[in-house]
Amino acid sequence: MVQLQSVVQARPLAFRPQPTKPAAPARRIVEVESLQVIIKTAERCNLACQYCYYFFMGDDSFAARQPIIGPEVCERIPAFLLQGVEQLKIRDLSIAFHGGEPTLQRLRDFDRLCTALRAALAHKTRLNLGMQTNGIHLPDEWLACLDKHGVELSFSIDGPAEYHDRYRTDRKGRGSYQRVAANIVRANAFFRHRSGWTVGSISVMNHRFDARRICHHLRDTFGIRKQSYLLPIRSWEQPFEEGESALAYGEQLAALFDAFVADQSLQIYWALEALAFFKEKRVVTQARQLAPDEAYAVCKALVVQSNGELTVDDALISARDWRNDSQPRSIFFDALADVVNSRQSWQLLEASNRLPDACQSCSVRKLCRGGRPEHRYSAQRGFNNPSVYCEGLQRYYGHVIQFLIRNGYPEQKIVEKLGQ
After folding, report:
1. Tens digits of per-residue pLDDT, 145-193?
2. What is a single Pfam family found in this protein's UniProt entry (predicted)?
3. What pLDDT was estimated at residue 25?
4. Cα angle: 266, vertex 279, 388; to 5 degrees
5. S-S: 374 plus which of 177, 227, 315, 362, CB 3.0-4.6 Å?
């Protein structure tokens, strides 16, 4: 019998960041399998969520940009992306309309943007359009437009009213649950004619809340089965609040995994991602043989701001020093291929693909990959740190491994997958 005690038991996190220097890129990305582009159609919001990292985490750069995306930016985006798709041979392109709150954009401008994006890109790549909304303002005209362009819809909702209204309030301090709930019900009814279609949800986790209760509430009250859960933005520069702990979030992730096991009609990303690791690897056939100085990548999210400025994923707002130490980029002056190959993009790609030094001996390192880059950042060592959620991630992945063992998954195969 293979001994897996070191795998399924979390060890205390005793790491403290020390200075290091980032490695320089040695190759150029010439092909991209998939890319997500976030378009900030509005950089203001009709809510004032207390935990919002975009408006309330000390970065006020949004205030220097126009509140609503302008027509000149909308006109430029399709051509900018088309050139990138052709140059980088992008196979899958996901575009997410985001904010702030994207429905603050004029509907006719949104309609024109979606029409232009589909006309320019649908015949060149597998194109997916989606919108993340707080659900406050969503009249029938918006639902009809989303239906017209096949835009997938996801609501930001943190569970039942007593959870959701604790932080997701409007500018007068009033809870938003009842308004969001009514619009979710309306959206489900509006799209009932689309077979298999359902709205999705994104919930920000909280150490005070019951994650399983949130999951069941979204499923039983609204029929939402496609559920995403975000760990709060924490890093070595943005530590835990009083009463928080990494282990508490690990317990919540384990509870979400158990909810998925009990009802596998649910699509919970954390569970699906962990189980996919233990499945047989699929064979990826590249389009052509690449030269030694060329690279093939799955790139992280790129953000188009309301003024056409190009930045990295908002979640990396916790890495403020690193974000600010970059060359300004714009859809009006730069090519997508050059942005993908910028020093900042390469550092982020390396952070995603290279284990931090402190993680090299961890038993679940291949499964965890050091956690998400935004949870690893420190001004001293960049992304070469373990996640601040390390102890919780070990608890969660250990829980998944115990489940597999109890249900007959060969222990020797687990050991091989984990590289033990």
Report:
1. 999 999 999 999 999 999 999 999 998 999 999 999 999 999 999 988 7
2. Radical_SAM
3. 55
4. 70
5. 315
Segments making up each domain of the chain, as ranges = 28-277
Query: Quick one: which of 297, 270, 310, 308 has its CA closest to 395?
Result: 270
Q: Give me the mean pLDDT over the 390-405 stretch.
A: 97
User: b/e map of 2-23 (b: 16 or more CB within 10 Å)?
Assistant: eebeebbebeebeeebeeeeee
Across 354-362, average pLDDT = 94
* Burial 88-124, CB ≥16 within 10 A → b, else e: bbbeebbbbbbbbbbbbbeeeebbebbeebbebbeee
Q: Is the peptide bond before 200 cis (omega within 30 degrees of 0)?
A: no
Name the DSSP class of 224.
-
> From the CB of residue 317, how many other CB atoms can be counted at a distance below 10 Å?
20
What distance in Å separates the CA atoms of residue 326 and residue 313, rounded to the nearest whole number? 14
Number of H helices, E strands in the chain: 16, 12
pTM: 0.90
In the chain, the percentage of residues whose pLDDT exceeds 90 is: 72
Give the CATH fold of the 28-277 domain.
TIM Barrel (3.20.20)
Helix (H) or strand (E) holding 200: strand 200-204
Work out the widest C-alpha separation in the chain, in whole angstroms: 65
